[in-house]
Amino acid sequence: MLRALAILALAMPASADTLYSSNGPFGGWFGLWGADVSTSQSVAQRFTCAIDADLSTASFWIMNNAEQPGAPIVVTIEADVGTGSSSRPSGTIIESWPIAAQASGWNPVQQTVTSRARPQLRAGAKYWFVLRSSAPAGSSPVWNFASSGQGYTCITLPNGTTWQSSGLSAGLCMGVTGTPSSPADLDNDGDVDGADLGAMLTAWGSCGTCVADLNADGVVDGADLGHMLTAWSSGS
Questions:
Q1: What pTM was computed for the model?
Q2: Where are the domains of the chain?
Q3: Distance separating alpha carbons of residues 94 and 72, to the nearest angstrom
Q4: What pLDDT was estimated at residue 111?
Q5: Are strands 141-155 and 43-48 parallel, antiparallel or unpaired?
Q6: What is the pLDDT of residue 84?
Q7: At what angle do helices 222-230 and 194-202 cross, to 10 degrees?
Q8: Measured distance CA(183)–CA(196) in Å, rounded
Q9: Does domain 182-236 have CATH number 1.10.1330.10?
Q10: Given this model, what pLDDT does residue 209 score?
Q11: Topology classification of domain 12-180
């Protein structure tokens, strides 16, 4: 019986922590409002991960300029480039999800995407969730602004591809959850073992940006190996 319970416990996924959470869209001074997501404008919200975590879910409150549901949306999580007010999505897509707006008109619906790839998000690193759509402006989805609170947001110029400089402004409605993890778990299998050591040795030396560079100094060396040995078999 105890053995069966132990196996069941190992099979159960670890509970997810909240990595980012805005207020909802209701009750603000401006009522329900948002940013159009269309062929001429993509919209992004930035967050900073406080802990090392494997991405679990992301959720967004979305309205619809059309009276019928179904407006197409592509959600992506991307790395950050730039500094300060020039911070923006890099275009390097970590994971993506095609969804359709569930709302009919300006009645917001919270929509959630679940990560299959479970990418590891690094503590202190900045990431962007980006919403794009092939729908024309008049029938496009609308990403709701939060009823209160600020966030780093970014929209594209009318060409739909070039990001304008971001800044701290009204925050968009977004929530992100993840499962705490160890950065030394290079293959994201829940433990730090020989497979991770092999991946580190393969990447040994100057690597620019790579997951095996645990201290992010541009090179995989003894310092990174020391971090891995400290975390050995500890998993998340």
A1: 0.80
A2: 12-180, 182-236
A3: 20
A4: 98
A5: antiparallel
A6: 67
A7: 170
A8: 10
A9: yes
A10: 66
A11: Jelly Rolls (2.60.120)
